[in-house]
Amino acid sequence: MTTSPASDLLSPAPEGSRLVAINGAAGRIGEVMASNLSSRYRLRLIYNRTVPDSVADAVAQARVSGNAVPIGGGHEVAVAEIADLDAVQHSVAGCDAILHLAAVPSVHAPWDAVLHANIVGTYNIYEGALRAGVPRVVFASSNHATGFYERDGIPVGPDMPVRPDGYYGVSKAFGESLGRFYAEGHGLAVICLRIGSFQPRPRDRRQLSTWLSYRDMAQLAWRSIETKETYGIFYGISGNTRGYWDISSARDVLGYAPEDDGETFAAEFDPAPARS
Q: Is residue 156 part of a domain?
């Protein structure tokens, strides 16, 4: 089967731009972020097992050589098993920042699954970044770190105590806490984004409140990479009229200016008012 080279799928990066590693590049968010950030940064896309056809040959070369392989446009691919600290360190060496997206994404994932990918893997990213001299990590956390507030109908902001609603949420709360330790104990800059419902458009009535559009997520990512803040937790949703997660700190601290609002799609989920 003939496939397009990655250089056809990603915009060329500006000369001299930051080199940003996207760990978990094969995931749903990773693929969208690669496409949306490729015109702003040079990207190093880090893969493990799942590999898109467009970069399969380059990834195969990276597996053999153990080094990052150019794919055109100033971008590269690399390979690392998230549970292998040495491999993670090697895969991010020379980067200016890491967007850490790799994780078991299921809200209902069992403990053994989150322990391997989300607990050990997140430690390896922070420690690998520190050892490799990478100054900044943007950690993909989740609204499920505070999921029991939503179950109780309580609006929540990033300064409230965590209330994870499963092992997945526990792993994200762990990543936030570990990130703070690396920020305050080792000088690594860490920004944690509690990602909401990342979809091209809201899929149900709840997502009118929790939706995070593709372009708003990309904006949050680049603002987190370019901010001078050394640690912070921020909710990641669009500028939803019905939002019940507080994004005021993302606006004030990161300069986040969401372009989308779930309310645009409200008529699809709210019944039309009865005519008198």
A: yes
The DSSP bridge pattern shows strands 197-198 and 42-47 to be unpaired
Burial of 260 (C-beta count, 10 Å sphere; 0-12/13-18/19+): buried
pLDDT digits (tens, 9 = 90+) for 150-202: 999 999 999 999 999 999 999 999 999 999 999 999 999 999 999 999 999 99
User: Residue 84 is part of which domain span?
Assistant: 80-268
The pLDDT, as a whole number, for residue 49 is 77
The DSSP bridge partners found for residue 137 are 98, 190
124 contacts 85 by C-beta, under 8 angstroms:
yes
Q: What is the dihedral of CA 155, 160, 161, 162, to 10 degrees?
A: 50
Q: Tell the residue number behind the tokens 């949050």, with chain if given.
A: 220
Residue 180, judged by CB atoms within 10 A of its CB (0-12, 13-18, 19+), counts as middle
Q: Which of 41, 168, 182, 256 is catalytic?
A: 168
Least Cα distance to 220 among 199, 247, 187, 243 occurs for 247
Reading the block at residue 74, the tokens are 């100033």
Number of domains comprising the chain:
1
The amino acid that residue 140 corresponds to is: A
What six digits make up the tokens of 214? 């593709």
Query: Looking at the domain assignment, is residue 100 inside a domain?
Result: yes
d(CA 199, CA 28) in angstroms, rounded, equals 10
CATH code (residue 200): 3.40.50.720
Give the pairing type, strands 69-72 and 231-236. Answer: unpaired
Residue 35 domain-assigned (yes or no): no
Q: Is residue 34 part of a domain?
A: no
pLDDT lower than 50: segments of the chain = 1-5, 7, 276
Asked whether the beta carbons of 65 and 87 are under 8 A apart, the reply is no
Based on the residue annotation, tell me whether 168 is a catalytic residue of this protein.
yes
- Amino acid letter for position 152: D
- Residue 18's pLDDT is 97
